[in-house]
Design a protein that fits this description.
single chain, alpha/beta, Purple Acid Phosphatase, chain A, domain 2, HIT family, subunit A, 2 domains, seven-stranded mixed beta sheet, Cwf19-like_C_dom-1
């Protein structure tokens, strides 16, 4: 296949000498590039003098350079033809929006300007109509799979979701929702943007739902800083690319190790129609303290607000258990002496008959059957408990293994078992789970580290799921019978904790006083890590 070497660049703001000097230096060191793609503002307030030398032909860009249009009213005058034109020798304005495909077959979609709220958009902006038309023209192409490159000036809104840290930029407020919508539909393999004066290379994200859709290629988002910035942030990005059209389909859809969920795809939960407002009889979902002496755990909101609060924070009301539940915190069946921490939506309790004295459970306060059924507030707190436990166990020289069995159980229990660091590696733990699953004809699939189990399992589907403290996850969709003690049995096996006699919790019950002593010790040690105490 022909491999094309491209350079992408952030806001030039008229600093052409600095940019082209750098391009020549790179070409001198690494050999020739075919094309330079510029996103963000190509012209700045003081561009006239330098630009005049290129306009008159006194100077020439060292390689074919393609630029986006104006992002403000002041620089509109540099772009005489909205549909694109040559601005100077070797410097081409692509136009307001469209698809550029060179003879190479490489497809470059582009959208100039910043997002406009109204129609028609001013010359330095794009509107919802522009994005809709660009999207429609691309999606109606027969056999459309995506584009090789997307060039926009603003960032897409929410690009930081499921991602590596974006630093100072708040991606929930910065950037354009229309660009996110464009990206999720036209699936660029590379998406370049600028304007935020910083460099950010996001982890690649996938364009399909794992186990539900055919695998597709991944997308990489790269934001570039401004040319010659004093903080030495990266503004020029070199990459090699084979056009999608000439790639082997299997190579195209290979998923890198660090791939994440798609940041723009609305989760199924959000797609469900908005919940009706809180009715008068319902209490806001805030922390409840329980009167442990009485049979029927008495509730009182902990935030001190009365029920008439105009906008209480409302979680999805969990379903009510059909019979007595051992794990609903308000239930008389709960063994409250095992509880070691109570948050707003979740609590921690030592496992009854635990594999080890510090085997702990993360449980929702309300009655939810599995992780897939949780509302977003509960998910958020589960995540907090996971990181607190990870830090806590690390401080004791251990790593945790977390598993959930959504099968013949009615209340979600996330089992968290610590394993000494010097005992075995995460790789050993993963291999033991996979090997023992194979022995029992259980198909345990590795799901990508940044994927969300909610996108793999449908509500109501029985499953078994393991998560290592590295973020690696294994998943089995239960279709028939499933050994109830599988998670414990693997961890208790000779290769890991070597406690085969403790594989069944019923054989490990201790006296109530001993359990209470373990809980007191755990509570005391966990205190510095317990965010619920700081709330």
């Amino acid at each position: 296949h022909a491999v094309f070497r491209r350079l992408a660049c952030g806001d030039v703001e008229g600093r052409l000498e600095a940019l082209f000097g750098r391009v020549r230096a790179i070409q001198g060191k690494s050999g020739p590039f075919d094309m330079l793609l510029c996103v963000g503002s190509f012209f700045g307030p003081d561009s006239e003098t330098e630009w005049a030398e290129y306009c008159t032909g006194a100077k020439k860009a060292p390689i074919p350079t393609y630029v986006l249009g104006a992002n403000d009213q002041d620089t509109v005058r540099y772009f005489p033809d909205v549909s694109g034109c040559e601005l100077a020798e070797n410097i081409t304005y692509l136009g307001r929006r469209g698809l550029y495909s060179g003879s190479s077959g490489l497809q470059i979609a582009y959208l100039s300007g910043t997002e406009s709220q109204g129609e028609p958009a001013p010359a330095c902006s794009f509107s919802a109509k522009d994005v809709e038309e660009l999207k429609t023209s691309l999606l109606s192409t027969p056999g459309f799979k995506g584009v090789d490159i997307l060039l926009t000036s603003p960032w897409p809104r929410d690009v930081g979701t499921f991602a590596n840290s974006v630093g100072e930029i708040n991606t929930k407020k910065c950037g354009s929702k229309l660009i996110s919508d464009l990206a999720v539909n036209i699936k660029p393999r590379y998406h370049f943007a600028a304007l935020e004066k910083t460099y950010y290379e996001r982890l690649p994200y996938r364009n399909h739902v794992v186990l539900q859709e055919t695998p597709q290629h991944v997308s990489r988002f790269i934001a570039l800083a401004d040319v010659g910035n004093s903080s030495k942030k990266k503004y020029l990005y070199a990459f090699s690319i084979v056009p999608m059209s000439s790639m082997d389909p299997a190579d195209l859809v290979k998923q890198p190790q660090d791939v994440t969920e798609n940041p723009y795809r609305k989760t199924q939960k959000e797609r469900q129609k908005k919940k009706p407002p809180l009715c008068a009889e319902e209490e806001p979902a805030c922390q409840f303290f329980f009167d442990l002496q009485k049979q029927q755990g008495k509730k009182r909101p902990s935030d001190g607000k009365e029920r008439g609060n105009s906008q209480p924070k409302q979680a999805k009301k969990p379903p009510q258990p059909t019979g007595p539940c051992w794990f609903c915190l308000a239930s008389p069946e709960v063994e409250k002496h095992l509880v070691v921490s109570i948050g707003t939506h979740c609590y921690l309790a030592l496992a009854k008959g635990g594999l080890l004295p510090d085997h702990v459970l993360i449980l929702p306060i309300g009655h939810y059957q599995s992780v897939v059924d949780l509302s977003s507030e509960v998910v958020e707190e589960v995540t907090k408990y996971k990181s607190a436990l990870k830090e806590f166990f690390r401080s004791k020289g251990k790593r945790y293994v977390l598993f959930e069995r959504n099968y013949r159980s009615q209340h979600l229990q996330l089992q968290v078992v610590p394993v000494p660091l010097d005992h075995c590696t995460s790789e050993d733990i993963k291999e033991s789970f996979i090997a023992q699953a194979q022995e029992q004809q259980i198909e345990l699939l590795e799901i990508p580290e940044y994927s969300d189990i909610m996108q793999v399992a449908q509500p109501g589907t029985p499953y078994f799921y393991v998560e290592l403290d590295t973020g690696e996850k294994l998943f089995h969709r239960i279709r028939g019978r499933f050994p109830l003690h599988f998670g414990r049995a693997v961890l208790a096996s000779p290769a890991l904790l070597a406690l085969p006699e403790r594989a069944d919790w019923r054989l490990c019950a201790a006296e109530r006083e001993e359990e209470a002593e373990h809980a007191r010790a755990f509570r005391r040690d966990f205190q510095p890590f317990d965010f619920a105490l700081r709330a």
